[in-house]
Write a structure and sequence with these properties.
Order of helices and strands: HEHEHEHEHEEHHEEH
CATH superfamily: P-loop containing nucleotide triphosphate hydrolases
Helix content: 25-40%
Number of helices: 8
CATH topology: Rossmann fold
Number of strands: 8
Bound molecules: adenosine-5'-diphosphate, magnesium ion
CATH architecture: 3-Layer(aba) Sandwich
CATH class: Alpha Beta
Oligomer: single chain
Structural class: alpha/beta
Length: 253
């Protein structure tokens, strides 16, 4: 994947592109698979050395491989973010999804403004919320929760970026209009296309028929340009080999 695209999407460097982004497509179009690959590619780029990714899945599923153990405790998830490049968080209580997501975002803002020693590198953060349309307020007429609002409006200057993964463009709260730098679209409907025209002033007519079957497009909302891409090769994570125990290695000699 082009690192330029990956940086525009994820690098929390305070630049004009470092606003939040969204990914929209019908269920089953390959959003989670694509997202996982994009994050895996970002991890290979040295510019992301100090970037911590947190992937929030209300569906309680992730594709980052067997070495990443999902966490459901907010404190533990934030602790994991201090040292691990990728943390997976599963909110468990459907009654309080919004509250749990808000606590995570609030915690990340706290982490970002912690005092650091002089020689300590400055961390930055990407908060990915998959299937965000399940959360209250993800609706063109809805108001997202206070911390989702804060992330969208105030994240950039704190080196925190959000990525919201949704089924429909119309799941994007109006507040996000003008506060996002990038969109990824996959298989979308004509209704989404109409909505995109109305809200973002962008025509997807020329590409809408070519999406589907895991093809996708990157929409640069600052330049109002669209680039099309073929399906990605899904990322494959092999479990890390456990070190052989001493007894076993002697035995195998
Ligand atoms: N680029 C791809 N190539 C091959 N299979 C894919 C690709 N992207 C997704 N899939 C398959 O399609 C199914 C749905 O993908 P998923 O990422 O879960 O979609 P979504 O998150 O949009 O619901 C999965 O079985 C996945 O393995
Ligand atoms: Mg998914």
């Amino acid at each position: 994947m082009s690192q330029h695209l990956i940086e525009k999407l994820f690098l929390p460097d305070g630049s004009p592109y470092a606003l939040s982004s969204a990914m929209c497509a019908r269920s089953g179009s390959g959003k989670t698979t694509l997202l996982t690959r994009l994050v895996a590619d970002a991890r290979k780029n040295p510019k992301f050395k100090e970037t911590r990714f947190i992937y929030v899945s209300v569906k309680e599923e992730h594709l980052f491989g067997p070495d990443i153990e999902p966490i459901s405790d907010i404190g533990e998830a934030l602790k994991s973010m201090r040292k691990n490049p990728i943390t997976v968080f599963y909110p468990m209580d459907a009654e309080y999804y919004e509250g749990e997501v808000d606590s995570i975002i609030e915690g990340v803002f706290r982490l970002s403004s912690e005092k650091r020693k002089k020689d300590e590198p400055e961390p930055s953060f990407v908060i990915i919320i998959d299937d965000a349309n399940i959360l209250k307020g993800f609706d063109s007429r809805g108001q997202p929760s206070p911390m989702v609002k804060k992330l969208t409006i105030a994240g950039r200057s704190k080196r925190i970026r959000g990525m919201f993964i949704l089924h429909r463009l119309a799941n994007l709260p109006r507040l996000m209009n003008g506060n996002l730098s990038s969109l990824i679209i996959m298989n979308i409907s004509q209704m989404d296309n109409d909505y995109g025209k109305k809200i973002f002033g962008i025509e997807f007519d020329s590409i809408i028929g070519e999406l589907g079957e895991y093809r996708w497009a990157y929409v640069d909302l600052l330049k109002e340009s669209i680039s099309k891409y073929n399906p990605i090769e899904p990322a494959v994570f092999k479990p890390k080999k456990k070190k052989k125990s001493r007894a076993r290695s002697i035995f195998s000699l």
